[in-house]
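We modelled the chain as a single entity of 880 amino acids. Its sequence is:
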Amino acid sequence: MSVVTAAGSHPSITSLSVNGEVLQAVDIEAALGTAFSRLPVVLRLLAENVQRNMAGQEREQAMDALRNWLATGTSTAEIEFLPTRVLMHDTTSTPALVDIAAMRDTLAESGADPMALNPLLRVDVSIDHSLAVEEYGRADAAARNIKHEIRRNRERYQFLKWASKAMNGVHINPPGTGIMHTINLEQLATVVTIMDKDGVRWAVPDMMVGTDSHTPMINGLGVLGWGVGGLEAQTVMFGMPATLRIPDVVGVRLTGELGPGTLATDLALTITQRLREVGVTGEFVEFFGPGVSTLTVGERAVVANMAPEYGATTGYFPIDGHVLDYLASTGRSAEQTRLVEAYAKQAGLWFDPEAAPVYTRVVHVDLSAVAMHAAGPRRPQDLLPYGGIRTALEQEPGPANSGTAPTGGGSLPDFPVALAAITSCTNTSDPRLLIAAGLLARNARQRGLAVPHRVKTSLAPGSPAAASYLKRAGLIDDLASVGFDIVGFGCTTCIGNPGPLTPEVAGAQTAGVSEPVAILSGNRNFPGRVHPDVELSFIMSPPLVVAFAIAGDAKRDLSKEPVQVAEDGTAVYLEELWPSRDEIDAFVAKANDPADFRRDFAIASRDPQWKRLEAPDGAQYPWDDGSTILRRPPFAALTEGSLLGKFTAHPLLVLGDDVTTDHISPASAIPPVSGVADFLVDRGEDRADLNVFASRRGNWEVMVRGAFHNKSVRNLLQPEAPVAHTVHAPSNETLPIWDAARRYREAGDSVVMVAGERYGMGSSRDWAAKAQRLLGVRAVIAASFERIHRSNLIGMGILPLVMPADMRERLLGLAPGDRIALDAPEERIHPRAGIAARIIRADGTEEPFMATAAVETGLECGLLAVGGVIPMILRRTLTA
């Protein structure tokens, strides 16, 4: 392989000779000049994208802004970003593709060709978010669960198959093929890809976006990617660049190496706590320093995956030899690894452990100081020593009738382990973590330990290859012996699909004698996220999940107390069961076969149940007026306009801090006793089998009625209101939110939302913004916003406003009858503009304040001016 500087007309182009082919590439160093080596790697990657995709004066201005970033480590300049591909999952792709189907109808009704609306980028859709743990603790659980999944989601899956036929570039990965981020790591990511442009073959970095907040997991492989909402993804799909402010970049310098007993999960939880404390919301994070070289790609991916938990856009690890090793170990070709190595070294993207680029801020983490941890019981940044769960639970009020009570098979503790789930891409994509769990299970089995019957256990790896390597390691039976049979290959418990609690636990909770606790290896533990009846959850590594499952009591201090007492009366402690690092390494080497990954993925892709699903043909989708799954949404119309202007509005809801997108638009099971359930039952659905909210994201009528349907949501406007209710100020009646919003709309009254810090944290789901648009919300006034939800609000034409700190108490103390006046016409909206506002109290007194538009780019201003992403796409298509 060799690198030759091109003799072409542009000095920032080189030629790369590799695998017997000469490829063209951007010379990033020549384009950036002396700034190149001092810039973080993520900004070098953005510079490559700018240099390749922008042109003329706009390109030169963008490159100047990237160079000038070094002076202060921050910038207000905007650049354009064009990814090479888009990644989606079934419950974010469904609403996006429903929008496109509805927009095609609108085009046809306007006399245009509906086929004019087609994605211009490759779109990979993974069906991973709908698998529920109905069956567990049996060898055939996975097969039985996928049958339940396809039965319940048949209509939606047929729609996805229609989309893959009717739209260019949409590729579906069927149920059972794994979790989207694991598939991305193992199958889709190239790190460096070859692209044809105007008849010329280019070597370019693999850069992508995904409609899931955990898309940054791919940063662990040296691929720059981040999560966006489905609305922003639609703009990218149709050829519009993502416009972003040149980000602040926080450097996390890693030194030392992880000690015995600590795992990648412990590091990820430690970094989550540190960076939430520092504050990195919306910023890029890049890891550097000698400690990076001690981490495998699997370990890096765990840390990168949790970027949304620490609030960042990315958690990037540069390309090095570990990346090449990972590509080879997952079955990538030798030609591909040669391309990656040659390009990364030529482009100056190869990791140097001694390099110290300029960063906005630097955070130091000594890997050797990281200990075994858990996080909870309500947020992933609430770090605990693994023995500190007892202390955390002692701060909780506990069950109403505290104390043990008979439950048929004995008695339950105050805080029983209700769910013990090895779940999510975060901690099942790294084979080391699953091998460690298997070894702990083996040691427990040899001591005769067992999981109490009342604990619902599950193992849902991100890849079907996990079954092969666990079997080759001889650990699959050991995991099964303690209840951790594989239940399928999908998100399951992590996304809120754990199935029902065991009767013993559910009964004890109903009786008020026990408060159930979830123990999981996921990434989020917001109240009600994993199960609507579970308020308390703790995140930890897979082997620690197995240990707590065996203990059965979340309040057990495993740093001091035995995990369980064996049948012979011997107390067995965690340190006796915990595998050593050398033991884990030996079993990983024994288990790995690169052929597993391609073969097992291909076998899963050919599932006969998926093949048998029939899908309609044609450019337009044939909507069924009787469907409770798919409905043409009203906002995919040319009649939808801007919400900007000068207006006075009632607060629809007033909320506190840390309101997540799970709170705004739940994904978990639809409660059988609820207004949403009544709506569905009236349309012929079985109250006992309503599935989850996420399965209904193609039906706007269900989703808007499900908005804020979470018992953890406390509406400060009326704190004692039932779940998903608010007060309608003119009548002073307490109504379901949807009914109150309808009353306001019919009377011609505007409404706004008011919230505290970190509004919209968590998942990327665009329905959290769509529901607010359908409720008539024109603006959201919050103390701060999480990045993706802020973008989604703008994508639906809703103005996000940041309240001044000195107005927090007064705004969160609004009472029924109080209103907010906003002066926000289109001409006053520009990035970070001041927006004049007033509280108008029910007694007529007024309190003026100045809010700040949480708008970052000119493109976002344009979206607000036309009413959001969908009107913009329709207008562009009609005028093309």
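As a brief sanity check on the tokenised model: The two ends are 44 Å apart (CA to CA). Residues 141-166 form the longest helix (26 residues).
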